[in-house]
Request: fold
Amino acid sequence: MMVTGYIQTHNLSRVYDGQTWALNNVNLTIEEGDWVSIIGPSGSGKTTLLNMIGCLDKPTEGSVVINGITVNTLNQRQLTQFRREQIGLIFQQHYLIPYLTALENVLIAMYYHSSVNEKKAIEVLAKVGIEHQRQLNNKPSKLSGGEQQRVCIARALINEPKILVADEPTGNLDQKNGQVVMDLIHNLYEVGHTILLVTHNMDIAKQGNQILQIVDGKVWSSN
Amino acid sequence: MFFRILRKSLSRQKGKVLISMIAIIMGASIPSAMLNVSLDINEKIGAEFRKFGANLLVVPKSDTIEIGIGDISLSSVKDQQYINESDIYKIKTINWSKNVFGYAPFLYQVVSAKAKTNGEEQQVVLTGTWFEKNISLEEGEIFTTGVRKINSWWWNVEGEWIEDIETISDTIYCMIGKSVAEKLSLNLGDEIEVTYRETVQETTKNLTVVGIITSGGSEDNHIFVPLLVAQSLTNRENRVHTVQVSALCIGCPIETIADEIETKISYIEAKTILQMTNAEMNVLEKIQMMLALITIIALLATILGVSTTLTTSVLERRTEIGLMKSIGAEDRKIGALFFAESSIIGLLGGFFGFLIGIVGAQFVGILVFDSLVTPQVIVLPIVLGISLLVSLLASLVPVKRAMGIEPMIVLRGL
Reply:
């Protein structure tokens, strides 16, 4: 198979407040369809790396190239557009807009992307197991943690992104709900999504085809 | 979707919306009350000022007879030039006719007056005028005017005002100046015989005194009769010497009204009494400046209050804003949401502020003018516009903060 380097970082560094090196000279190559699990102790720079690849932040030094586009050269507006078209984000704390229903939390991502299609949103929610009218019309506070995370996954998928960036997606879930979420992510990997997943759980990390260990802002090992 | 988000976002933060709206209501009620009072004040203050008499004098061109208002001598009549009584109604047909509060024609003649009770005789000025005359305007409206309307405040009348008459009957009522009453030793109810002599012809009429006028001016030396009586006595039908006009002009100079009257009646001159007019304008301008100052201060306080509340709201919604940005919301969409929220708060607050302002205006009206203030519909869009502007200005800092929130706070979990 020809190595194309779908996601590449070159000498990637991020310094906070001029002195804290959250990432230090990171060089990575991730192929399309890879599942890369990122592990490491707290404060090692895992989330910072996700911020860079997820186009939520820009590096202090170095570059991030995704599908041939050097994203750190894009302006804020271009970066936002790239993010909403190419990247789906799944958060540890399954952030949802508290005053919108489960369905509306998915629709809002469509609204920011292009146009709202309620039928498609219901289909995507059904794929992640949110299909009852009660679940669709409930606000996040009325949903279980597992249901909320599944809504987050549906929102991340609704605009058909190529890359899924997940920051400890099972971190706040019990084992049963965690397994449901991991099954969903596994299915997405199976159908060809490129996945970057931060976790502390080695069993989850092993489900990916590549594991990056980050320590003190540097890639310690990669296999 | 935008309106769905907007509606739910507003309904979720009812407390803060309510606080912001109360601030806008309080801020908007001030300009509402002030504008209602200010727009109505022109009429109210105008009416107050108009009690002090006329501020425009209409005379025939080239006349030089000694005439004036109060003790202010404005001109004199040398040759007998007149204004046709039938032309006077044109004064109320000028473009600024609504600013014409009232007017009264005057026909003067020196006559011999003899008190029937004691035989005292004096040469006095007999003045024919309208007292309280109803005139039909072209649009069918009845306009009440006359000397009673324009001079009621500074003419202190003992007894009664007389009424205008259509035909001359046997009993003719008159009002006399205080000096005339003293010189001829006349009291209310006494009769006077007035005689007008023109070459060989002599006309006499008997008058009954029903009112004694004290003005402190030249009117104290006059005998006032209905215009028809003076015209009949002096054989000058349809003729008057002067017309006193009481006009107030806030949106235009008084000279404009004078010019328009001169255009309508080509053979007359309309002279302004600038001293009084300028004083009126100065007082009105100062009152309006004071009202504007109070309004500006109130609105600045509102901007500060609303801005603080909205900034607190933005800080509390940092995660929500960061989340919206992380899933693709551009800054302009975040800004649009907050500006729309502020606009709704501003417009609703403005509407209720308008209603409360009307109530406030009534208090001012009763306290200052002893009368209610008529609500002005035009104030509603003005107050809504002001409230909208205030709420948008108050949103500038919070919206800038909202747009500055980084999407990565979601992943950082801040």
User: Anything to note?
Assistant: Chain B touches chain A at residues 1-2, 4-5, 8-9, 11-12, 319-320, 323-331, 333, 406-408, 410-413 (CB under 8 Å).
